[in-house]
Amino acid sequence: MKAEQERKMRKEEDESLIIYLKKEVEAALLRTDSLEKENQDLRQEVVRLKAQICSLKAHDNERKSMLWKKLQNPFDSSKTEVFLQKQSDFVKVSERNVEHSSPRPSIQELAIKEKHAKVPNPPPRPTSVAPPSLKEANDNKLPPTSAPPPPPPPPNMCAGSKAVRRVPEVVEFYRLLTRRDAHMENRTNSAAIPVVAFTPNMIGEIENRSSYLSAIKSDVEKQKEFINFLIKEVESSAFKDISDVKAFVKWLDDELSSLVDERAVLKHFPQWPERKADALREAAFNYRDLTNLESEVSSFQDNPKDLLTLALGRMQALQDRRACTN
Known about the structure:
mainly alpha
């Protein structure tokens, strides 16, 4: 009896074990099927991404080739030869007739001559006014004798001055050409008058015909009252709030941007307070950098998902920028 009971118990245990193993096999089969489907989807996604990468590479290579062609061939060779031939012909003709020729004014020079004086905009009012100095108090005692500002110039008159371009490279090009022609002339005919004798006259003629230099001279003559107004504003400026300095520098730069070349024009005005203007600009730029740094520091948020080294690098960069501003 005991042996039969033991057999029955073993049989039941074997059957339960078989049923459990069958369930495990079925679950493994289902998991394998799902993994195969997921693997197939991933393969299709990889194929699609590879095709997209190939198309992007082809597009990138095409753009690079087009840019390379544009950089290698900015001008046709025939156009370059014609341009050089015209430049050498112009140099030779101007060397022969430099003493008898009278330069004709170009359209840009005519527009510069007709350019009216700029009407200055009033500077921004400071939020907190500093106490006036003794010089300012003495100046305020004088009665105002300012005339009403002239009407603003029409837009077509200012169009010519904005189109003026600098040409120091052309002067250097002419100098190289005249030097080369002088050496060639000295080699071929030593008895003839060397062309280098005409070089100073040639350079002076080119500078007189330069629309850039003409525009600077025009600004010096026509914008004298405007620049004197800016000089008085810079010299009398005094601020308590740094934001007022920023607004004043922005206004000053906007006003000076109407000149052809700020540095070249202001060189003709020795009373221009260059050190004070540069100090105001530096203060405004430092204030702008500090406000940008403050906004970055206040908006900094640590992302727990990022690596620790990345977050520490960002913090160290902000700390270095803060140390540089001190």
